[in-house]
């Protein structure tokens, strides 16, 4: 079920006694890492309350097509675009008929018409209704339109009959849903990424920092999510919106960043240190604003910050650890010595003396240095480079594992 990590699933619930099982299905999809938004038909609400599904999904439940308040939040077209999959469980005979005839008379059918995501149904109905020619014709029509059917199962039914039409168990539905997604290079892996600068306070209004934009770290976080990873992004102060589908922890100083990196570190499979951490911080933070004195020269006393990536690499168990080396000369030599000194698995070296790549620019060119060799990736956008880098990191990680 790891393939469900980060997947955005609309769970449609239609009216049927099996709707009570949709609560467990919601829980299973959530615990497999999916983000679940529930859409209910009016008759579904007769069987299970929206409140239950809201609590289990952690998202508001969508009930109406033409509701100004709901449309102001996430309208039906946005929902249709948001979805990586529309899964309808239970799917009643009536719903299947409306879907087969291409109707858009409520939120769920409209969503199905509007979405480009795969649509999967877990039918649930009385065995005679399932066998009825009308339902069978509708099933054939839907299958021809590439709608996937999970089940139905055969067995005892709520009405006392025995035969085909039982909704599959929630575990089976969740497994079928997971099988619809391809496995990514980092499916099911947990990746921590540090990004941006740190700020080292001098007094309540001043700090020491650097020009890191955080763009490379954020692009790596997005690429890791696309590859199926669960991502914790530990970010210094940047002007970038937090990407969706990840946990973003905002920090200021190197010490805050270290603390966030060490929290739940045992869960981390791959640690990528893309942050430009301040090497030193003031030995003391003045409680009040430091006043201008008469002297021409002011001395600041600084103390070394902890090395976050080296601390992570020294921990046990050690995640696969990737660092960056921003250099202005002798790039490969410095990168190799850093790889060894910090006990890293991989280091990504870049030339920050050039203004067209590196720190604040949108492009970068890097050399990936491992213990067995080096590979240069030519200049491209930080987004494209991030995808290439995540592929390389994943390949090296799997090779080592
Ligand atoms: O030693 P240097 O700062 O050049 O090393 C760069 C690499 O080490 C980067 O991956 C950076 O994120 C990481 N680093 C760190 N903590 C520090 C300094 C650097 O994690 N205090």
- Would you identify the CATH architecture of the largest domain? 3-Layer(aba) Sandwich
Question: Regarding CATH, which class of the largest domain?
Answer: Alpha Beta
Count of helix runs: 14
What Rg do the Cα atoms give? 27 Å
Largest sheet: 8 strands, mixed
Strand content: 15-25%
Output mean pLDDT: 94
Number of domains: 2
Would you give an account of this structure?
With 401 residues, the chain is α/β, with parallel strands linked by helices. The chain folds into two domains: 2-179, Rossmann fold (3-Layer(aba) Sandwich); 190-284 and 299-400, 3-Layer(aba) Sandwich (Rossmann fold). Helix content is 33%, strand content 24%. The protein is built from 14 helices and 19 strands. The protein has helices at 21-31, 50-57, 68-74, 76-82, 93-100, 107-114, 127-131, 133-144, 170-179, 215-226, 254-262, 308-313, 331-341, 382-400; strands spanning 8-13, 35-40, 85-91, 119-123, 148-149, 153-156, 162-166, 190-195, 200-203, 206-208, 230-235, 247-250, 270-273, 280-282, 302-304, 320-327, 346-351, 363-370, 374-381. Strands 12-11-8-13-16-17-18-19 form an eight-stranded mixed β-sheet, sandwiched between helices. β16, α13 and β17 (346-351) form a beta-alpha-beta unit. α4 (76-82) crosses α6 (107-114). The model has no long low-confidence stretch (mean pLDDT 94). Cytidine-5'-monophosphate (C5P) is lined by residues 194, 254, 273, 275, 277, 305, 307-309, 323-325, 338.
